[in-house]
């Protein structure tokens, strides 16, 4: 099949238009990625201005609760929530102490109660009366485990000796760190994560889709976390 000169010119123009459109598309996406990257860098550098909690203060509060209530987990939790409510008010603190639900993540299973959840911070009680073990996850936030009752063990890859965290101690996992961890029977912790919290959600929900298929727990997790994040956003807490 042969083409006339006119048809060849038309095909040539069409090819040039396609090439130009591709170049414009690549330029547009490159600009979006460039701006997006530097926006993320900027937000990451200033995210601390949105923090309202303080890790040393939470550690002191945990130790005070343990000193007053010993191994009475209910008393410890009530002491912590009452003090946080007095300090930050109900606009930032979820006082529904009966609002517990299961959490399956990294192969470990426990029960949790969300005290606070926002874009840059979460504060929860997590633990189990039975004991559990699993993968910590590799997160975009610093994670402080204030052990309230019982004992937690942990180890990095290649470690020949375990790390031991008894009641009253803090197990800090910095952003990007990963460990195997174990919470013994009756171990509960005040867990404070500070950083980009929504990016932790895939790890927190992954086992629900790949293992348990527990849609009620999925709904409870998403609904309560979302409610608390929106509630805090409405009062200016990012």
* Count of structural domains: 2
What fraction strand?
25-35%
CATH fold name of the largest domain: Jelly Rolls
From the spread of the alpha carbons, the general shape counts as globular
Return Rg in Å. Answer: 25 Å
> In total, how many beta strands?
10
Give the termini distance in whole angstroms.
Answer: 65 Å
Low-pLDDT regions: none
Number of alpha- plus pi-helical segments: 5
CATH C-level of the largest domain = Mainly Beta
Largest sheet: 6 strands, antiparallel
* Fraction in helix: 40-55%
CATH superfamily of the largest domain: Jelly Rolls
Topology summary:
Layout: H1 5-46, H2 55-69, H3 73-88, E1 100-105, E2 108-117, E3 121-128, E4 132-135, E5 141-149, E6 151-155, E7 163-166, E8 170-173, E9 180-183, E10 187-195, H4 201-212, H5 215-233
Helix pairs in contact: 2-3
List keywords for this structure.
membrane; single chain; endoplasmic reticulum; alpha+beta; ERG2_sigma1_rcpt-like; 238 residues; EC 5.-.-.-; transmembrane helix; globular; four-stranded antiparallel sheet; Jelly Rolls
Structural commentary:
Keywords: Endoplasmic reticulum, Membrane, Transmembrane, Transmembrane helix. It holds the Pfam family ERG2_Sigma1R. It is a single chain. The protein is α+β, with helices and mostly antiparallel strands. It has 2 domains: 5-49; 51-233, Jelly Rolls (Sandwich). The protein is 44% helix and 26% strand. The chain is built from 5 helices and 10 strands, in the order αααββββββββββαα. The strands form 2 sheets. Strands 1-2-3-10-5-8 form a 6-stranded antiparallel β-sheet. Strands 4-9-6-7 form a 4-stranded antiparallel β-sheet, with no helix packed on it. A hairpin with a 7-residue loop joins strand 6 and strand 7. Helix 2 crosses helix 3. The longest helix is centred in the first third of the chain and has 42 residues, at 5-46. The mean pLDDT is 90.
